[in-house]
Q: What sequence folds into this?
């Protein structure tokens, strides 16, 4: 049996279920998808939500859900960026990881015409959103950005799911040379959207927010912060008055307006110290 | 918020007896303010030390059937960086208690001196941290606790609360409480979490990244009520109850055991930030039904 939730783990929500990795897909040179059977999470997960992934012996890290099947299969898609993700990337099929969740709010997929803007591994929750939205017959326009062609995440999947797909790469090896946000203004001018969903590096998100403002399209942005408990207690993921783990990770434009001194400006490190949001990319 | 719920911890007046417990959401000014605006009578910050600390690797929390285990490892940005957060919370009108810790009396005292500059209303000493020299917990040793309290009192004018570890060795707990009182502590918070652990059956490994952790939530409430009761008998300074308060009944139980106020932490996981108003309105109804006019009429009623 792949899924080995213990009796005590089924009695409480916030305890990792230790599962064996069922499948691993190398999506790009730096991004892998991991599949586990986790019907308890998969059956209730919405696009935009995340799980806490216990990389046993190393750390526990938040990962957005990139897919959840009716068969109970759960997918997370992970970019190699630090100790825990490095360790996760070294795991093989059959190795164990712990999963607790799902946590946080999710994208509102109402409306008929959706615009999605994703940079780097930020495409992960959007692809899940695109799958759900497209199954409901929604019209999806997507702009995906990456450093280079081979790093464009879920390119073929998004090609299938979108009516219009625009690609950008920083080196020009695929699509338009530049950043995803370079194509946003013209896309917003071309047609009217019911909602704009974005996930990616924070400088990109800030630009999306700024560019979209005059177009009065409802904006939903997925934020990332240092996350430890995921249950709204420890306070490490706060942005202004909000806890990203429980009030987010998806924030509406009006909420981001309220934290304009912080959004796109600084994050907090493991100690809680302010650190500048990294230099612009994607 | 009516004045009927007003209470006092020594010379510090609180608009109501619900206090945000240390370690919960107390890292930033805006989050302290949010809890204050949600109705808390005061907010205690995350514990702060002289130097920044990252805390332990995850998992940092794991739920049990009637509580929560945590091993955060006292992450904090260091006292210098957190002063701005305290000032912001004070500017917003909150009653702010700064939780501080250190490896010895000197560090406790120097951190307390720094936080006083941010005009916080009181300082709470987190005595559950390990002692630099002995590897034991400071809060188990009456002499060490007395020394830490005394050094801190020399440095600050604001009230000094001593938060005792979750300690079921009641004789030792009472000795520590008396030592803190003798050294000049203005109040005692009883208590911190209790040592605990959870093991994953699939891997045989401890779930918390640190191995051991502290248990909070409904599981510990009857234990901490007992400790509050015993400490109240032993000292004259005010006691603040902490451990498993989720409902107004829990809070009233602590008040009757002798607490002048209660702290709430894990209750936020169960009820959200509305827990402060819920508990307050429940206490108010209880007082009305039973004909109590003031919180002080309930405090220590069971003795």
A:
């Amino acid at each position: 049996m792949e899924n080995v939730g213990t009796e005590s783990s089924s009695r409480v929500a916030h305890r990792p279920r230790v599962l064996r990795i069922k499948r691993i897909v190398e999506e790009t040179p730096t991004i892998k998808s991991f599949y586990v059977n986790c019907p308890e999470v998969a059956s209730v997960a919405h696009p935009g939500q995340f799980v806490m992934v216990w990389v046993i012996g190393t750390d526990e890290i938040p990962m957005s859900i990139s897919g959840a099947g009716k068969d109970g299969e759960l997918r997370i898609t992970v970019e190699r960026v630090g100790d825990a993700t490095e360790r996760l990337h070294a795991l093989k099929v059959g190795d164990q990881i712990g999963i607790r969740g799902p946590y946080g709010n999710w994208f509102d997929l109402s409306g008929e015409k959706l615009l999605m803007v994703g940079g780097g591994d930020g495409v992960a929750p959007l692809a899940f959103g695109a799958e759900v939205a497209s199954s409901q017959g929604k019209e999806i326009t997507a702009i995906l950005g990456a450093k280079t062609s081979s790093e464009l995440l879920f390119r073929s999947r998004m090609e299938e799911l979108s009516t219009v797909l625009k690609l950008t790469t920083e080196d020009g090896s695929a699509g338009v040379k530049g950043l995803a946000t370079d194509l946003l203004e013209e896309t917003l001018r071309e047609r009217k959207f019911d909602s704009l969903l974005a996930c990616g590096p924070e400088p990109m998100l800030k630009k999306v927010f700024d560019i979209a403002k005059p177009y009065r399209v409802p904006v939903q942005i997925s934020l990332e912060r240092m996350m430890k408990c995921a249950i709204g207690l420890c306070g490490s993921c706060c942005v202004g008055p909000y806890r990203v783990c429980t009030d987010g990770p998806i924030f509406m434009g009006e909420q981001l307006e309220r934290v304009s001194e912080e959004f796109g400006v600084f994050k907090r490190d493991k100690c809680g110290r302010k650190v500048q949001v990294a230099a612009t990319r994607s | 918020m009516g004045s009927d719920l007003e209470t006092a911890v020594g010379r510090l007046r609180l608009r109501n007896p619900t206090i945000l417990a240390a370690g919960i959401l107390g890292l930033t000014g805006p989050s302290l303010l949010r809890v204050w605006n949600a109705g808390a009578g005061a907010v205690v910050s995350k514990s702060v030390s002289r130097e920044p600390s990252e805390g332990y690797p995850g998992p940092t929390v794991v739920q049990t059937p009637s509580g929560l285990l945590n091993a955060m490892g006292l992450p904090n940005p260091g006292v210098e960086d957190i002063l701005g957060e305290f000032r912001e919370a004070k500017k917003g009108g909150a009653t702010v208690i700064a939780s501080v810790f250190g490896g010895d009396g000197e560090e406790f005292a120097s951190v307390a001196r720094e936080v006083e500059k941010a005009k916080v209303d009181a300082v709470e000493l987190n005595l559950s941290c390990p002692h630099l020299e002995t590897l034991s917990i400071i809060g188990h040793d009456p002499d060490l606790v007395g020394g830490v309290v005394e050094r801190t009192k020399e440095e600050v004018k604001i009230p000094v609360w001593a938060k005792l570890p979750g300690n079921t060795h009641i004789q030792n707990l009472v000795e520590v409480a008396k030592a803190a009182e003798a050294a000049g502590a203005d109040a005692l918070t009883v208590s911190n979490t209790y040592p605990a652990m959870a093991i994953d059956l699939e891997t045989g490994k401890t779930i918390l990244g640190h191995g051991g952790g502290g248990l909070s939530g409904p599981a510990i409430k009857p234990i901490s009520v007992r400790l509050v009761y015993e400490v109240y008998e032993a000292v004259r300074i005010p006691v603040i109850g902490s451990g498993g308060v989720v409902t107004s009944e829990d809070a009233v139980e602590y008040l009757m055991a002798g607490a002048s106020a209660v702290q709430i932490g894990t209750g936020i996981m169960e009820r959200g930030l509305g827990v402060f108003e819920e508990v307050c309105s429940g206490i108010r109804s209880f007082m009305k039904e039973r004909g109590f006019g003031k919180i002080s009429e309930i405090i220590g009623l069971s003795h």
In short: The domain at 3-297 of chain B is CATH 3.20.20.70 (TIM Barrel). The longest strand of chain B covers residues 259-264. DSSP finds nine helices and 14 strands in chain B.
